[in-house]
Design a protein that fits this description.
Elements (H helix, E strand, L loop, with lengths): L1 E10 L3 H13 L4 E4 L6 H8 L7 E6 L22 H9 L5 H19 L5 E4 L7 H10 L8 E3 L10 H10 L3 H7 L4 E2 L2 E2 L10 H11 L5 E4 L6 H6 L5 H9 L2 H10 L1 E3 L5
Helix pairs in contact: 1-10, 2-4, 8-11
């Protein structure tokens, strides 16, 4: 039987998103979740994870775009808010963003995770795949000696196995050379990564999951974005309508049946 890592991104984005993720974690319907630690309500939301943190994979979802910076104003966040992904990429390309400012922000984010969770992250990945960027690779290499047991890292998507070839091709370009760099620093890289679909079409989530489970190899990672909605989510993110659709499917008997039919079990979940 193949075992797939089904990871919910964005824990900490809003209390209602976290409600949905916690429901799935408690039911054993996802392998784990990646945490955003940049919001003021993170300590309260982290406490809600403590009951499951020892039984599922709780990781760090590094955030360098669109959200408030923990380290305040800098070349990364001139007004205190981190840039959009295109602005981040342009700023790095033209030397407008200092890599030291990125490193300080990432240090602050992992520091908040460690303080709240009292354990290292089981894995590290990136919101909008920013963990593939060169300054983050450098940060991971420099932080590697700090981990007695290193978190695993999320790898690149496979070639030709996505309904969004343009987006996955872009992510693969960002990820070029990442696996070699990370393994050279002692990290394990898991993949390939799946879960890409047009989020403006939530009805495509279940078919994407169905097709992925047919072909993903043992040890692959499928990212998902389940959750409920609230005012905080609407202030903080544009991905709204798809979250409850994903939640309802992953909590359903249809999903359980699909796992069984596909010969797939969730990695990190005891049988």
């Amino acid at each position: 039987m193949r075992r797939i890592w089904l990871i919910a991104d964005d824990y900490g984005l809003s209390p209602a998103v976290d409600d949905g993720i916690l429901e799935l974690l408690a039911a054993g319907m996802i392998s784990g979740t990646g945490c955003m630690t940049v919001f003021s309500d993170w300590p309260d939301e982290a406490r809600r994870l403590h009951d499951v943190a020892g039984t599922v994979a709780v990781g760090l979802h590094l955030t360098l775009t669109d959200q408030p910076s923990l380290t305040g104003r800098s070349t990364l966040a001139p007004d205190g808010t981190m840039p959009s992904l295109p602005r981040l990429l342009r700023g790095l390309l033209f030397g407008q963003i200092r890599t030291s400012d990125i490193a300080r922000e990432l240090d602050a984010q992992i520091g908040r995770f460690l303080e709240a969770m009292q354990r290292p992250p089981a894995f590290i990945d990136g919101h909008q795949h920013v963990h593939f960027l060169q300054p983050v690779r450098t940060w991971l290499r420099e932080r590697a000696p700090d981990f007695a047991a290193k978190p695993w890292l999320r790898g690149a998507p496979a070639v030709g196995q996505s309904p969004l070839p343009g987006k996955t091709g872009f992510v693969r370009l960002l990820a070029a050379g990442f696996a070699g760099s990370a393994t050279g620093s002692g990290y394990m890289v898991r993949g390939p990564l799946a879960g890409f679909y047009p989020w403006e079409r939530p009805d495509k989530f279940a078919p994407t999951m169905r097709e992925s489970l047919k072909r993903l190899p043992d040890g692959a990672v499928f990212m998902c974005h389940p959750g409920r909605t609230d005012a905080a989510l609407r202030r903080r993110d544009k991905l709204i309508e798809a979250r409850p659709v994903e939640l309802d499917f992953l909590a359903s008997q249809d999903f359980e049946a699909l796992l069984s039919e596909s010969g797939v079990a969730l990695a990190g979940i005891d049988p």
